[in-house]
Amino acid sequence: MKLRYFAWVRERIGLAEEDIEPPAGIATVGELVAWLAQRGDGYAYAFENPKVVRAAIDKSHVKPDARIEGAGEIAFFPPMTGG
Amino acid sequence: MTTTIRLQREMFDAAAEAALVTRSRTDIGAVVTFTGVCRADENGEAIAALNLEHYPGMAEAEIARHVDAAYTRWPLLGVTVIHRYGRIVPGEPIVLVVAASSHRQAAFTAAEFLMDYLKTRAPFWKQVEKPTGAAWVETKAADDSAAERWTTPPPSREAAK
What we know:
- The complex is a heterodimer.
- Chain A is built from 3 helices and 5 strands, in the order E-H-E-H-H-E-E-E.
- By secondary structure, chain A is an alpha+beta fold.
- Chain A has a single domain, classed as Roll (Ubiquitin-like (UB roll)), CATH 3.10.20.
- In chain A, strands 2-1-5-3-4 form a 5-stranded mixed β-sheet.
- In chain A, a hairpin with a 2-residue loop joins strand 3 and strand 4 (60-62).
- Chain A is globular.
- The model of chain A has no long low-confidence stretch (mean pLDDT 97).
- In chain B, strand 3 and strand 4 (45-46) form a beta hairpin.
- The longest helix of chain B is centred in the last third of the chain and has 18 residues, at 104-121.
- The mean pLDDT of chain B is 92.
């Protein structure tokens, strides 16, 4: 699946997007975050406060308990500040 | 109903966009136009510009979902939402919401509803250019509570008459 990062999540990880194959057993967005956070210092920094980072699956907002099975694109980003 | 949703780097003309909503129709009695403008300060600090990042595709979809919700909740006859991205300097417009209806109440309320949701749910992120460097704008609790008030069930249209 494709992961996309925006704003300071993107800056901390150092990537705008990447293709990943999470290991079996990673079923939810929250579990994916925990797995990503241990992939390196940038990831750990981006997800140091997982409650702050928001997620979207296929361009719709989701909560941490959302299942990732079948997702084409998962995005992580800070709280939004548009308008 | 005339619905326009646009994301763009370029400036927009709020008056021209509002005129488009009422063009060649006579059933609209109220047009509310809100324009968000870039200020020269953020929390008391001078800024040179805003840089707006967005999530292409999701931003349009999220705005469309809230425009649909507004049409469901209020008797609207037209809605325009334009949100800019990229570099915006103080004095320039950032966002436009136009809401049109037969009467003013629906137009005022829907415009406010749309702005509250744009601030907290549309995937845009503001970064400010300060003399000390670039900084991401933090979410304001007031924006969250402004959006929260719309989550209570709306009064029925019958009761409002």
